[in-house]
Amino acid sequence: MVIGFIGLGDVGSRFSSGITREGGAQTVGFDLKFGLKEFQEKEDRCREYGVQLMPTMEAMVAKADIILAATSCADAIKTAEDAIPYLRQGKYYVDVNSAIPPIKRQLKEMIEATGAIFVDGGILDSPMNGWHKIPVALSGESAHVVADILNGYGMNMRNVGPDVGQASGLKILRSIFTKGLEALLLETFSSAWHYGVMDDVYGSIQEMLAREPINTMVERMVTTDVVHAERRAKEVGAVAEMLRLEHMDATMSQAAYEKLMWSARCGLKEHFEGKTPDDYKTVVAYLETLRSE
């Protein structure tokens, strides 16, 4: 079984190098950036670990049984278009780019028109944290097959379902929280710095996060939103106004105000009769009914 990589950047170079050196895999790779000075470090990494660098896309695809596309979300379709002329029945094409589910479904149609098998992938951590051992979600009818094979070489692949879009959805939807948290921290810290309370605010955040298990805190926030959304909205709305008066950016504060006001007005409190529900999933289930109305 030969594992091929389209794209040998931070992801592809570490995945391929890791499963070659530690997992004993036979790997091949191709990248359009071969020969560029700024790409030399990644080429050297692959050569050092035993990855066979192929001169063309055609040569790489022809030799590989499982192909992992690890370019970028913006290049996912172009990457597939470049590989399609050389794909054949029985080959697996695994797209691990951070593309949205509709793009992954489009890729499935394109790839499977050649007779090859498409698998949706979503990388759930930075490859710098664990190289090929970081968690990767896979979905699609043959996701379990690819997961079993690649896990045999030391990867950490998990089949999350039979439908293309489930793995990329898991990856992308997590970003609402992870990228949103990053944005919240930027606004919180810059505002705290302006008011001269940076260390105090940071310390307070650390204390809050250490006070109870993260799952307890997250679920409590969702369930108590049923009762307290409007009050919380007005509090953070006042913060947004304060920041604007100070000529500071209030993007996240304003967004929090608008989302919490939406929650306060969508009928949650009436549905739960003004009481905090025991299970946060009942809150989410109710919000899902709004989408279908």
Verbal overview:
The chain has helices at residues 10-21, 40-49, 57-63, 76-83, 101-112, 127-130, 143-151, 166-194, 198-211, 214-245, 251-265, 268-271, 280-291, and strands spanning 2-6, 26-30, 52-53, 66-69, 92-95, 117-123, 135-139, 156-161. Strand 1 (2-6), helix 1 and strand 2 form a beta-alpha-beta unit. Strands 3-2-1-4-5-6-7-8 form an 8-stranded mixed beta sheet, sandwiched between helices. By secondary structure, it is α/β, with parallel strands linked by helices. The chain is elongated. The mean pLDDT is 97. The protein contains 13 helices and 8 strands.
Topology:
Layout: E1 2-6, H1 10-21, E2 26-30, H2 40-49, E3 52-53, H3 57-63, E4 66-69, H4 76-83, E5 92-95, H5 101-112, E6 117-123, H6 127-130, E7 135-139, H7 143-151, E8 156-161, H8 166-194, H9 198-211, H10 214-245, H11 251-265, H12 268-271, H13 280-291
Parallel strand pairs: 1-2, 1-4, 2-3, 4-5, 5-6, 7-8
Antiparallel strand pairs: 6-7
Helix pairs in contact: 1-2, 4-5, 8-9, 10-11
What key phrases describe this protein's structure?
13 helices, about 290 residues, alpha/beta, about 55% helix
Question: Brief description of this entry?
Answer:
With 293 residues, this protein is of the alpha/beta class. The chain is 57% helix and 13% strand.
